[in-house]
Amino acid sequence: MISVEPAAAAATRREPPPRSGLGRDAVYGALALGVERTVALGIALYLPRHLGLDDYGRYAFLLSYLGFFQIWPDASLEAVLVTRVARAASGEALTLAGRGALVRLGVSLAGAALGIAVLGVVAGDRATVVGAMVASVGFAATAATPYRVLLRARLSMARYVGLLAAQSAVALGCLGVVIARRSGLVPVLGAVSAGPVAGVVIGRMLVGPGARPRRDARLARALVADAWPLAATSLALVGAQQALQVLLLRLHGTAAMGLLGGAQKLVEAIGLLPQALMLSVLPALSLAAASGGAATAARDASRALVVVLVPVAAAVAIWAGPVLRAVLGPAFEPAAPVLRALAPAAVLGASGAVLANLLLSVGLQRTLLRTTAVAAIFIGVLGAVLVPRLGAVGVAVSWATGMVVGQGILLLPRATRVHVVPVLAGLAGPLALGAGAVTVVVALGAPFVAGAAVLGIAYPVALVATGTVTRADLVRWLG
Fold it and tell me: What are the φ and ψ backbone dihedral angles of 84, each rounded to 5 degrees?
């Protein structure tokens, strides 16, 4: 774990120094994300057999559509609240989490009301609108609970996993009853929403009393002011990506879109590790920021991620065809050039996630929004040039290049440069050795077994032998 000198107030209370969020915290984060994703995937794969094509189409559409209106409370407001609660004293943390949950609930309900109103005008389908109302209950319950934020902020990741596992079990149990009774779309959405609703009660049992949702207008204004740049950042990136997908679909058809989607899913699977680590790294960065050590903590987290992800991303790029054939089937093997172009995005996404959380922890999310907007425009312009000629490969190249440009732009403003330079400088060694390993495998035309040995054995040995990764690093990462 990272040892960072605590602030004076923390020293007075004799609290332990901030932790890095690595080691056991990262394992619990991976378990938590695994529980959520596995349950959601299992439900999504089974429901077509129960609902039928029409109702399943409504189900998939509603979750995606309503999720768009929940970006603000679920992603940005939660992240901002975690940073504040992580730096607060124990009693103050409970008060802050409770009042912040009320703010998130208000924003969630407002987003749901807007989404349902638009849906009522556009869809003209009563069953879909009623389903949207029921599904919104689950989103509102997720926003209203202060306990997920509290457990993350305190780095109580074992109890965080327990909370997610318990509410997932409730959702699966209710869904089983609904399926046994052969009920339709609305009861299914009610069963799925029952999990987050039960999570409010379960979280209260795990955390205890004190996190009461009370109105605090000043806190509400502060949270909204801090959170809107993060929401806008997410929307800017999503907008740029969606625009290129629409362009690809219009110019090259559904087959090209399918190849892009298959390659993208594999890269997203690799990206689950950074997402899991961020569950514990964000509160750790917030603690470290109070004593000026956020950049050091972020540097350590990003180096650990890159060391792990470089061999995986390299293997996916080198043996893209066989990987696609083995995972998705022979029909997706022509997506190999797309996957090779997207593979670097797995590593870039990891460093980008750490940098985004670092800038949030030090209060520079507005600067992050400006740089992201420039990167999104760059992605759109480059894609408009490449997609007509290269198809799905052009989309992949635009995304990966846009990530490089976005992180490079962070070096220009002085406010962000002082935080970003140590993080990116720490990646130079692992990336250089990784590039060398890939060059050796490709130049020798090594078969899979020999190439895997170079990436999985020779690369880690080179990291240690050159001092790029030290014994102290391993102790912190594996602690």
Answer: -70, -45
